[in-house]
TrEMBL record:
<comment type="pathway">
    <text>Cofactor biosynthesis; thiamine diphosphate biosynthesis; thiamine diphosphate from thiamine phosphate: step 1/1.</text>
</comment>
<keyword id="KW-0547">Nucleotide-binding</keyword>
<feature type="binding site">
    <location>
        <position position="45"/>
    </location>
    <ligand>
        <name>Mg(2+) 3</name>
    </ligand>
</feature>
<dbReference type="GO" id="GO:0009229">
    <property type="term" value="P:thiamine diphosphate biosynthetic process"/>
</dbReference>
<feature type="binding site">
    <location>
        <position position="242"/>
    </location>
    <ligand>
        <name>Mg(2+) 5</name>
    </ligand>
</feature>
<comment type="similarity">
    <text>Belongs to the thiamine-monophosphate kinase family.</text>
</comment>
<dbReference type="InterPro" id="IPR036921">
    <property type="entry name" value="PurM-like_N_sf"/>
</dbReference>
<comment type="function">
    <text>Catalyzes the ATP-dependent phosphorylation of thiamine-monophosphate (TMP) to form thiamine-pyrophosphate (TPP), the active form of vitamin B1.</text>
</comment>
<feature type="binding site">
    <location>
        <position position="61"/>
    </location>
    <ligand>
        <name>Mg(2+) 1</name>
    </ligand>
</feature>
<feature type="domain" description="PurM-like N-terminal">
    <location>
        <begin position="43"/>
        <end position="161"/>
    </location>
</feature>
<feature type="binding site">
    <location>
        <position position="95"/>
    </location>
    <ligand>
        <name>Mg(2+) 4</name>
    </ligand>
</feature>
<feature type="binding site">
    <location>
        <position position="239"/>
    </location>
    <ligand>
        <name>Mg(2+) 3</name>
    </ligand>
</feature>
<dbReference type="Pfam" id="PF00586">
    <property type="entry name" value="AIRS"/>
</dbReference>
<feature type="binding site">
    <location>
        <position position="95"/>
    </location>
    <ligand>
        <name>Mg(2+) 2</name>
    </ligand>
</feature>
<feature type="binding site">
    <location>
        <position position="59"/>
    </location>
    <ligand>
        <name>Mg(2+) 4</name>
    </ligand>
</feature>
<dbReference type="GO" id="GO:0000287">
    <property type="term" value="F:magnesium ion binding"/>
</dbReference>
<feature type="binding site">
    <location>
        <position position="171"/>
    </location>
    <ligand>
        <name>ATP</name>
    </ligand>
</feature>
C-alpha cells in the first residue's frame, strides 16, 4: 500500500520548512547570476520586493486539478508536482512578459488534499524554480505564499513585473500596417493535451509525441522577448493562452483592427505537429489556430522594424472593414482571404473558455 508521507502527517510549518528551501535550489546549479528583485523572501507576514520603476504590473493565474491538469490523464500519464509547478511559473511570468515587463516575483497559494504526498509538493517547489529558469526569468523568485487544505489540488500564483521605465504594452495599440509576430510557440500544448486525453495511446515511446506532451505539461514562455519587443516599439502584446485566434481576436477587438494571418507561417508551426495529427486524425492547423497554453508571446510591431531572429512573422494588421464592404465587424481574424469563421469545419474552433469548453478542443 501507499506508505508515502502525506501533507496530512505534517504541520503547516513543517511543510513550509520542506518546501521553501527548494524554491531557490537550482539557481546556483544553473549558473544563473541575474539580479533578484527579492529583498525579503518567505518567512514573515509579507515579502519585500524591489520595484525600481515605481510602478509594477501584477496578475494572477490558477490551476485546478481536473480542470487545468489531471493527476492521472486518460492516456495513463501522470502530472507530477514538478509539472504543475513548472506550468504555474510559466503561465504567470508569461502574463508579466506580455505587458513588456520583466517578471520580478511570484507568490504561490496552495490548496492540498490531506492525502497529497509531501514528495509531490516538494516537486512542485522544484518545478516552480525550473519553470522560471526555463522561461529565462532567473531574477523572478517565489517570495511567499499560502498553504491550506481542501478537496482537490489548486495552485494559484500572483506575479509582479518590472516595466523598467517603459510604457506597458497593452492589447489596444495594434495599428494598420503593423506586422503580427510570435515569440515562442502555439499549438504544441494543445496537441499534447489531445494526446494526453486519448486513452488508446501509449505515450513515452516516440520522442516527437513526448515533446508535445511536455509542451502541455511544462510549457515554456520566452519571457525576455516581452521586454525586447517592447523596446523595439511593440504596439500590442498578449500571451497566447486560450488559442491564437481567440487571443488575437482580443487584440484586434481592443485595437479596432483586423488581423490577416499568413498560411505559410501557420503551416510552418503546424509542421512538427503532423505526426500527432496523423495519429489523432486531426488537421494540425487546427491546434495552431485554436490551441492554448503554449504561452508564446503574440505582438504587433510597426512594419518598418527589422524582425530579429527568434520571432516569427505570422501576418499583418489592417484597418477594420466598414459596413460598406459588406463584412461584419465580428470578422476580426482572417486566414489570407478567408475569415476564420468560414474555414472548413476541421479547422474551425473557439479556443479555450473555462465555462464553455469541453475536454480538449
Ligand atoms: N476575478 C477577477 N476579478 C477581477 N478581474 C478579473 C477577474 N478575473 C479576470 N479578471 C480580469 O479579466 C481580464 C481577462 O482575464 P484573463 O484571465 O482572460 O486574462 P489573462 O490573465 O491574460 O489570461 P491568461 O491567464 O490566460 O493569460 C484580465 O485583465 C483579468 O485581470
Ligand atoms: C484536464 C485539462 N483539461 C483541459 C485543459 C485545457 N485548458 C485548461 S485551461 C486552458 C487555457 C488557459 O487557461 P487560463 O486562461 O486560466 O490560463 C486550457 C486550454 C487542461 N489543461 N487540462
Ligand atoms: Mg494573458
Amino acid at each position: 500500500m501507499n506508505q508515502e508521507l502525506t501533507v496530512g502527517q505534517l504541520s503547516e510549518g513543517q511543510l513550509i520548512a520542506r518546501f521553501a528551501p527548494l524554491l531557490a535550489e537550482q539557481s546556483a546549479a544553473s549558473g544563473e547570476s541575474a539580479e533578484s528583485y527579492q529583498i525579503l523572501g518567505p518567512g514573515d507576514d509579507c515579502a519585500v520586493v524591489a520595484a525600481p520603476d515605481g510602478r509594477f504590473v501584477i496578475s494572477t493565474d490558477t490551476q485546478v486539478q481536473g480542470q487545468d491538469f489531471a493527476l492521472v490523464w486518460p492516456s495513463g500519464v501522470r502530472s507530477s508536482g514538478f509539472d504543475t509547478g513548472h506550468k504555474c511559473a510559466t503561465q504567470n511570468v508569461a502574463d508579466a512578459a506580455a505587458m513588456g515587463a520583466v517578471p520580478s516575483s511570484l507568490v504561490v497559494s496552495l490548496t492540498l488534499p490531506k492525502n497529497t504526498p509531501v514528495r509531490w509538493v516538494e516537486d512542485l517547489a522544484r518545478g516552480l524554480r525550473a519553470g522560471t529558469l526555463a522561461c529565462q526569468a532567473p531574477q523572478c523568485h517565489v517570495v511567499g505564499g499560502d498553504l491550506g487544505a481542501g478537496g482537490e489540488i489548486s495552485v494559484t500564483a500572483t506575479v509582479t513585473g518590472d516595466l523598467q521605465g517603459r510604457d506597458p504594452v497593452r492589447r489596444n495599440g495594434a495599428r494598420p500596417g503593423d506586422q503580427v509576430v510570435l515569440a515562442g510557440t502555439v499549438g504544441r500544448a494543445a496537441a499534447g493535451l489531445d494526446l494526453l486525453l486519448d486513452p488508446a495511446l501509449e505515450l513515452g515511446r516516440d520522442p516527437q509525441l513526448d515533446a508535445l506532451v511536455n509542451s502541455q505539461l511544462r510549457p515554456v514562455s520566452p519571457t525576455p522577448w516581452g521586454a525586447r519587443l517592447a523596446q523595439s516599439g511593440a504596439t500590442s502584446m498578449i500571451d497566447a493562452s486560450d488559442g491564437l485566434v481567440r487571443d488575437l481576436t482580443r487584440v484586434a477587438t481592443a485595437s479596432g483592427v483586423e488581423i490577416v494571418l499568413n498560411r505559410e507561417a501557420l503551416e510552418e508551426l503546424a509542421q512538427p505537429l503532423r505526426p500527432a495529427g496523423e495519429i489523432l486524425g486531426q488537421d494540425p492547423l487546427h491546434w495552431v489556430l485554436n490551441g492554448g497554453e503554449d504561452h508564446g508571446l503574440l505582438s504587433t510591431v510597426p512594419a518598418d522594424r527589422q524582425l530579429p531572429a527568434g520571432v516569427l512573422r505570422l501576418g499583418s494588421v489592417r484597418a477594420e472593414c466598414t459596413a460598406a464592404t459588406g463584412v461584419t465587424h465580428t470578422e476580426r481574424i482572417w486566414l489570407e482571404q478567408t475569415p476564420v469563421s468560414q474555414l472548413p469545419l476541421g479547422l474551425r474552433g473557439r479556443g479555450w473558455d473555462h465555462f464553455e469548453s469541453e475536454d480538449g478542443f
